Amino acid sequence: MSDCCSSRKPADEPVKVASCCEAGGKVETQDSCCGGDEHGGRLDLLLWGSLVLFLAGVVVHLAIPGAPGWLHVFGHTCHEMFMKSWWGLLFGIVAVAVIGRVPRELVAAVLGRGGSVSGLFRAVGAGLALDLCNHGILMVGMSLYKRGASLGQTMAFLIASPWNSLSLTLILAALIGWKWMLVFIALSAVVALVTGWIADRLVAAGALPGNPNTVDLPADYRMKPALFGVARSLKPGGGNWKQLLREGVSGSKMVLRWILFGFVLTGVIRAFVPEAIFQQYFGPSLVGLFLTLAATTVLEVCSEGSSPIAADLLTRANAPGNAFVFLMAGAATDYTEVMSLKETTRSWKAALALPLISTPQVVLLGWLIHQFST
What we know:
The chain is mostly helical.
């Protein structure tokens, strides 16, 4: 493959690891086809600053049990976030590396044509099928965009995914019952499909930027040889696996910086904002819905943590609409998703379209849930 941005390749050509997306690869067009790191060789202060503060919090939790109250809460939050999300982050890094070896044509063949309804259904199905926390899903979603998924497919994937994995679905069913769990899954799929469809229509109208990584499949394209090529590129071997790890970490940096920043910010909020304030104002009302929306926008809660909190909103506050908003707003308004989209698409319009399109749907559905459940 002579050009990392080449949109066409013979169907039976093996997947070649060498590309502009390789760790250490020096190709002038890297930013255009790989969404390269805008920091270049400069120190990424957000990434390393957040990492230092986050690790300091974990150390406080493990080694300084007599720390002041606020510092103890901050440290406990950092440790809790690490314990609940490490597996998702690790899987996400591995997935980023593997997806980086997948030709854009194969991604297009699996997800279907961008801008089509069938392509959106496939993206939602992929989001439902992956058993990952929202932070791992975010890295996978950004990688799919880089491999050619449309903006609408990427948004649909992100919205459908965060708490709909198999394990979290079962946890949610145990906490709130199967009826509400099935209602929430159905409504989240609706929001994902509608948001993705609107985003793709706006791209077609020129109101939002299209994905420059999109490719047109050759008429004679065959998936089987491409799948074998990907499998060969992942063959066992210390050197190859080390290269995969480097590619995964390098490709995940832009998302990891915002995830770590979100963890630190959550620790600060929990340390200085009393829990009673949240319990007092999150009742089953329109004001409660908007307060829930505001809280989830700034409070970075991993999907494993959002399910128990949503269950409390439903069972203790008797506010099922708030519970739905809390679960959905993490994908609709969370600044981690917005900033990751911005850095991946290089467009504020594309990033802000996610909350602007999905949030009104989430609030409306939350309000309707209140109306029909009372």
